[in-house]
Amino acid sequence: MVSAMSTPRLTIVIPTLNAAHTIGGCLAALYAGGDRRLPFEVLIVDGGSRDETIKEASRFGAQVLTVPPGRGGQLAAGAQGAKGHWLLFLHGDTLLGDDWGAEVIEFISSEANVRRAGYFRFALNDDAASARRLESMVGWRCRVFALPYGDQGLLIAKPFYDVLGGFAPLSLMEDVDFIRRFKSRAGRRALIPLNTVATTDAMRYRSSTYLTRSLRNLFCLGLYFARVPPRLIQRLYG
Fold first, then answer.
1. pTM for the full model?
2. CA-to-CA distance for 11 and 155, rounded, in angstroms?
3. Chain centroid to CA 92
4. I want to staple 35 with a disulfide (CB 3.0 to 4.6 A). Which of 101, 122, 133, 195 is the partner?
């Protein structure tokens, strides 16, 4: 999406670890939904995958950076290596809707948004009623607590990201940590919900049950707010 002579306006940072089964779909959706007005680069920050993740990413022409594992550190490394003035952090098992490029263009074209951040609408690739309930709960969490998670993406201007100190090198809860600092500096109203749907792979919910996984996530969040070190929470989160 970026020619050899053009400078990307946006860098999409995707942390991966053994994500060969999902990264192809993620990248295909990105390139399919891009907008010609939006030169962007895709930077895969891999934590040492032992599967075909890097091969699959290279097949789509994405740049690959290999760093030690740990999602917070991977995100931080991607931001540091980004060439774009805007950053979009995205998980490797997430598919953005076809209109993502047009909506991102609209968001970043507004001067008012240089100290704001946008996030996408959460969805799961599962027809089960439990999936719809979880989607509704996520929507409620975002409306009431202004707390989007990393699987909803995060769109932010790089200069403001840098002012906030970027992602901490945490193995878990790096998204919650960053959003807390963001709201402390910019206020909760500076977190803007976007219309584009971000569809996340539901495999981790189907591998147990929606209720079990949701309760585990909530318990882990509670432990984090109780100041339990993320490295210890990681053992429970799995």
1. 0.94
2. 10
3. 8
4. 101
Sign of torsion over alpha carbons 146, 26, 8, 66: positive
Query: Which residues touch 117 (CB under 8 Å, ≥6 apart)?
Result: 154, 155, 156, 160, 182, 186, 190, 191, 192
Q: Report how far apart, in Å, the C-alpha atoms of 42 and of each of 17, 74, 84, 207 are.
A: 16, 14, 10, 30
**Residue at 144: amino acid letter:** V
Please, where are the H alpha helices in 109-229? 129-145, 158-163, 174-186, 203-206, 210-225
Dist CA 32 CA 100 (whole Å) = 10
What is the set of domains in the chain, with CATH numbers? 10-204 (3.90.550.10)
- For residue 121, what is the enclosing H or E element? strand 117-124
Beta carbons of 92 and 192 less than 8 angstroms apart: no
User: Which SS3 state, helix, strand or coil, does residue 199 take?
Assistant: strand
Per-residue pLDDT tens digits for 35-77: 889 999 999 999 999 999 999 999 999 999 999 999 999 999 9
Q: Which of 36, 65, 38 is nearest to 53 (CA)?
A: 65
173 φ/ψ sector (left φ>0, alpha ψ -120 to 50, else beta): left
